[in-house]
Amino acid sequence: MKQHNRAARLAAGLMVALGAAGWAPWASASEPARAPDFYRTDYGECIQGASADVAVWWCDAVHKIPRGRDVPDKAGPAARLAAARNDHEAVQVVLRPSRPLKQLTASATDLKGPEEAVIESDHVRVLRVYYHFVENPTDKTGVRDWWPDALPPLDQPLDVPAGQNQPLWVLVYVPRDAPAGDYRGQLKLQAEGFSAAVPLELHVWDFALPERNHIETAFGFSASNVFRYHGLKTEADKRKVLDMYFQCFSEHRISPYNPVPLDPIHVRFLPEADPPRAEVDFSAFDAEFSRVVEEFHFTGYRLPIQGMGGGTFHARREPRIGQFTAETPEYQAMFSSYVKQLEEHFRQKGWLDLIYVYWFDEPAPKDYEFVRKGFERLKRYAPGLRTMLTEEPVDALAGPVDIWCPITPRYDHRAAEKRRAEGERFWWYVCTAPKAPYCTLFIDHPATELRVWLWQTWQRKIDGILVWQATYWTSSAAYPDEPQNPYEDPMGYRSGYSTPRGVKRFWGNGDGRFIYPPLAAAVPGASGPEPVLKPPVSSIRWEMLREGIEDFEYLWLLRELIHEKRSRLSAGQLNRYQRLLEVPESITKDMTTFTTDPEPILARRAAVARAIEELLSP
Questions:
Q1: Is the pTM of the predicted complex or chain greater than 0.90?
Q2: Fold of 2-30+212-546
Q3: What is the mean pLDDT of each run of 10 residues along the chain (618 residues)?
Q4: Residue 316 is inside which H or E element, if any?
Q5: Do 146 and 66 meet the contact criterion of CB atoms below 8 Å apart?
């Protein structure tokens, strides 16, 4: 299990190595907390004409708003946002009542644009920002306080206490056929003794984002956690809810390791055949995989291969098929028959570029010979199957590895460029580490960090991002008897690796948890015996990943257009456009020096968008 691997390795070699460089991955929660960015008050605008006893203000979606921060001094006429077609963009509309506000509801009107164009209100979702109490800060960036993260829908009236901010997350999807230009609408707010209409202004850029990413994504997903929390028993219910989760992944441009958990490839090994061989049944897999690739536009599938063995730096399993070890002719005949069929089938279906074999995780030097032999065995019989390894490039493993995937602080650009010259590619990942001062995935860190991570990804010519889990809602060690409520306890706790039953060891707030079960399923069975057939709940961090991936796609579009239009551009135009492909220091100077203010990101994204429009103009 991935959650087992991260903590143990990082607690060992990675912690020592990076600690020597001045990085303490697991800073003590007792260290003095510093979260100056969390408590900033220099952003946001009050909405003019709001009620005297209920302040209404707005800001972009890339700030985490403390419950107690003051209302902004600045005022403005409307909440403003900009997006391309086939793009998502959000703003936060914040209420801070001076008296308790009862039964708050919110609804968006249609957005009306140029020449009677309309983005219908169905494309505008209103979510509420949920606050989680962080008892134990992840590291020196965090602080003990209420932190916003989950974004459940505002599908029933909400009470807002006096003197506290309650942000509403107003999420707009711009359809592919929406004309470019400026759109206007309203967010209508209603409560007992209160009503207000917040003007919304949306600018639509004159281009569309592609359906499928040009950056690969690979995120762990626990179908068993979903079935457990939702109380799902029947196959029909499981499939219905899985589709809700995969729709959520798809809308956020993120691919799960395995989008077909109920429809695996079946293999039957025949050691008594002459020669020994494998019978592979793709029928159930093909039907479902074809559907999810077409419907959800996923970029990859982590192909499990039986008989390869595997493991981690902590422990490993030797390759074996039944009683036959890798040295036996029976194993070799069955294994070769099996993987050759896999390769040929995926080639014929046109899916070969979606497949990656991730069979060993984070090897230590003692594992290098074992891992190399496993990769070479696979490549001997199925050279077209892409191999991926969560490790930085090392000479002892070079050759049979197609994709290197180091943890972000371990990425060495000069070493990577040498491997790229050999045709190899790079992904990278974050997990329980790194911690401050790197870009991380934790709840008690600035929202900008996950978005900046994608700009760092573009900057280093990295082709993919990986995170070990998106639905790690509980720990079998920390919560051995009753599962964790991820809303009430935001900490990701260690599981496995000899962690004693009932012992809570911290990995970090929100680690492995980007989407939540619906509130009705926050604790399995708490809402009664009936299954909860509702979609998952997004989070601010899940939204920031999407924003970063969309930023990456803006840059990709600009680069493609520069290449396509190069011959018609003057030297000055070419230089101006090419400079926009560079990531400015105002966004990220290096791996530990980057903005916590969204303004440089938003400004650069707008400049890239204007350049795309110019290049697309006749």
A1: yes
A2: TIM Barrel (3.20.20)
A3: 40 35 32 67 89 92 97 95 98 97 98 97 98 97 97 97 97 98 98 96 98 97 98 98 98 98 98 98 98 97 96 90 97 98 98 97 95 97 98 95 98 96 97 95 98 98 98 96 97 88 94 98 91 98 98 98 96 97 98 97 98 96
A4: strand 316-317
A5: yes
Domain 45-208 sits in CATH 3.40.718.10: no
- In terms of Cβ atoms closer than 10 Å to its own Cβ (0-12, 13-18, 19+), residue 552 is buried
In the chain, CATH 2.60.40.10 covers 45-208
Beta bridge partners of 471: 513
Quote the DSSP letter at residue 566. Answer: G
Determine if residue 129 is left, alpha or beta; phi over 0 gives left, psi from -120 to 50 gives alpha, anything else beta: beta
Share of the chain above pLDDT 70, in %: 94
Q: Are 27 and 33 in contact (CB under 8 A)?
A: no
Q: Of 255, 181, 158, give the one whose Cα is nearest residue 215.
A: 255
Is the bond preceding 393 in cis, omega lying within 30 degrees of 0? no
How many CB atoms sit inside 10 A of residue 534's CB?
A: 17
The segment(s) of the chain belonging to CATH 3.20.20 are 2-30+212-546
Run of H or E including 543: helix 540-565
Task: Encode pLDDT of 449-500 as tens digits.
Answer: 999 999 999 999 999 999 999 999 999 999 999 999 999 999 999 987 778 8
Written as six digits, the tokens of 369 are: 């010979």
The dihedral region occupied by 58, where left means phi > 0, alpha psi between -120 and 50, and beta the remainder, is: beta
**Closest to 6 in 3D by CA, of 371, 472, 415:** 472
Give the residue from 76, 69, 96 showing the smallest Cα distance to 167: 96
CA dihedral 17, 22, 25, 31 (to 10 degrees): 150
